[in-house]
Amino acid sequence: MQMRILGCSGGIGDGRHTTSFLVDDDILIDAGSGITQLGRAELARIDHLFITHAHLDHVLALPPMLDSVAQERARPLLVHALPEVIEVLGGHLFNWHLWPDFTRVPTADAPFMRYAPLALGETVALGDRALTAIPAHHTVPAVGYLIRGARGSVIFSGDTASHPALWRLVEATDDLRHLIVETSFPNALRGVAEASRHYCPASLLHDLAGMRRRVPVWITHLKPGGEAEIMGEIQAGAPAGLSVQALRQGQVFGGL
Predict the structure, then answer these.
(1) pLDDT at residue 60, rounded to an integer
(2) Within 13 Å, how many C-alpha atoms sit on residue 225's CB side?
């Protein structure tokens, strides 16, 4: 298994794209603007989309993606998400006002898209890959994902503030190869981070101090313009011997 980072920014501009990770060539995690990096043939091969939450930066490219390649697909795209997320997508996005309801187009029996409700802690096995919805602590119903391949796994926090369940899972995952965790704001905006339930360097460093498992930590969802400040604050206080780096658009995690 491999995972390609299509987008990992907390915003757009100057080549930045919002969250979207491609697992092999058929699984997508979130549908941010990062998927606009793919060609139409690549888009048509995606059969599964796992959504962390319904905020626009994580779902904004889903409607045009489907519209661009739906006629070339042999089966509906399966959208895996919490029931609360599916309710938002159906009520506020695919509602015939912002976009047609692709669960009923061209027909309800043969639609372009189907919803696959996902419970917290549930694992979806797809060949030798398995994705498990893990807890997140955000302003709306949200999850992260444990993404497991035949040779190793990745934990992706999703959008979240500090919560113990994430770090218990890190310690319990024996085959963990990479941890991807968000940090959206610098310490100067800690109040904004806390109100919007995101990490800032101070809160992340508090949790990293208790992390016993030494795997590379990749920081995602940095807000545009604040990247250098955020990473400088994290790296200045990171535990000795722990690799903490900014996740990069175009980065590939292989051999999983």
Answers:
(1) 98
(2) 4
For residues 230 and 43, give the distance between their C-alpha atoms in angstroms, rounded to a whole number.
33
Q: pLDDT (tens digit, 9 = 90+) per residue, 18-34? A: 999 999 999 999 999 99
- Distance, CA of 206 to CA of 165 (rounded, Å): 15
Question: How many angstroms separate the CA atoms of 158 and 144, rounded?
Answer: 4
User: CATH code at 112?
Assistant: 3.60.15.10
What pTM, to 2 d.p., does this model score?
Answer: 0.97
Confidence band, pLDDT 50/70/90 cuts, at residue 83: very high
- The H or E element containing residue 124 is strand 123-126
- So what's the pLDDT on residue 115? 98
Q: How many domains does the chain have?
A: 1
Q: List CB contacts of 2: < 8 A, sequence separation 6 or more.
A: 23, 24, 252, 253, 254, 255, 256
Return the SS3 of 8. Answer: coil
Distances in Å between the Cα of 85 and the Cα atoms of 58, 90, 218 are 11, 9, 26
**Domain range holding 204?**
3-253
